[in-house]
Write a structure and sequence with these properties.
By secondary structure, this protein is mostly beta strands. Helix content is about 10%, strand content about 35%.
């Protein structure tokens, strides 16, 4: 997500409404499943560090996923040039960028394709996931291409009707090479059907990817033409990459929250299955600083959990010890690892310095350094 300078539309009033209603219902002995939103979840974060002891410089992190024994992240096009077009590995236990970095390159076949000019010239990369059957294969997705060089006339005609933006959203397949590069091997544009009413919002498109069961890929969309967040799906069957035609997403019944006003996008998510086999998506709503627990069966309403984020203080002083509360975090990456939820933020340049309180963290905020947050997944979220 590329931020502009507009004021962030927080959802404090909505959360307060939910909290008030839940308190009333619990006191009446009804709907105890809403009780967990009475109190904010405290989420502690640690500065993501380079091996030289410096914080990660302005990566504008836009995705997070479990990979092997650690985590993998990527950056969008507004990041520092040193962070762009590469996947970076994080040791989750100490938030250290462990290496190797995996720079992305375009395959020879794609270099002559319709999307070569855009995808090789600082594309806006949003969301990241790993193939559930092959951890050498990754998938990323693009968002804002409004600045891109126009495609050839033939390519424009071929991909004329995306059902959304003029330049289509691209799902990109990458494969890890022996030299620790990530080769872009295939690209398919995404198509939304007219009845989905996705709208034309170049900077409010797909921001989250997560694999569920049976190679179902879930796509989280910031907002549709009705300004509501959406979750759609793709079936990633074995023949999926044998064509470069549009990949048509599917809608399915979910009980997502509906808002009367404001912007309430989801910006990162991952799949979670309870011990008794129920399936959920855990989605971060960045503007509202909430976690959505989305029941994939479509039977239950989405549970909304307010969160409060804290940044570590690496060198304590009087009045500034251990952690300080953040004014804003802007979560854009979510990863489930066993029974722990990991989150990464995308520092919003327009408001990130509002976090400055303790002098020890001032420079970190000035460098738009992100934090790695974690919290235990709680069974009460799913009851």
């Amino acid at each position: 997500m590329i931020y502009n300078n507009e004021i962030r539309p927080y959802m404090r009033a909505y959360v307060g409404f939910i909290i008030g209603i839940s308190s009333l219902l619990v006191s009446c002995g009804k709907s105890p499943e809403l009780a967990q939103v009475e109190q904010k979840l405290q989420v502690n974060g640690h500065w993501i560090m380079e091996q030289d002891g410096q914080v990660m410089l302005n990566p504008q992190t836009s995705g997070l996923v479990k990979w092997r024994d650690g985590l993998l992240t990527l950056s969008d096009r507004s990041a520092d040039p040193s962070q762009r077009l590469r996947l970076r590995t994080i040791i989750k236990e100490n938030a250290l960028l462990s290496g190797p970095d995996l720079p992305m390159f375009l395959s020879e076949e794609l270099q002559t394709g319709c999307f070569a000019a855009y995808i090789s010239d600082n594309p806006d990369l949003e969301a990241l996931t790993v193939d559930p059957e092959n951890d050498r294969v990754f998938y990323i997705i693009t968002e804002d291409a409004s600045y891109a060089e126009p495609m050839s006339e033939a390519c424009q005609q071929k991909y004329l009707n995306s059902g959304s933006t003029n330049y289509p959203t691209l799902l990109v397949r990458l494969e890890l090479q022996a030299n620790n590069t990530a080769l872009m091997t295939h690209i398919r544009p995404i198509q939304f059907t007219a009845d989905m009413q996705i709208g034309d919002y170049p900077n409010d498109g797909v921001e989250a990817l997560a694999f569920g069961q049976d190679r179902t890929l879930y796509l989280g969309i910031e907002k549709d033409s009705n300004k509501q967040a959406r979750v759609l799906s793709l079936q990633m069957h074995s023949e999926f990459w044998q064509t470069d035609e549009f990949a048509v997403v599917t809608k399915f019944a979910l009980k997502l929250p509906v808002f009367d006003s404001g912007n309430h996008p989801i910006n990162g998510m991952d799949y979670y299955q309870t011990p008794d086999g129920r399936e959920f998506l855990l989605a971060a709503a960045r503007n509202d600083e909430t976690l959505w627990v989305v029941d994939l069966s479509g039977k239950n309403e989405t549970v909304i959990l307010p969160m409060e984020f804290f940044a570590e203080i690496q060198t304590s002083s009087e009045g500034c010890e251990n952690y300080e509360v953040m004014d804003n975090a802007s979560i854009e990456g979510v990863a489930v690892v066993d029974e722990t939820l990991w989150l990464i933020n995308d520092p919003w340049k327009a408001v990130y310095l509002n976090n400055v309180q303790c002098l020890q963290n001032r420079e970190h905020y000035q460098k738009f350094a992100p934090l790695l947050f974690s919290m235990p997944i709680q069974k009460e979220w799913f009851n």
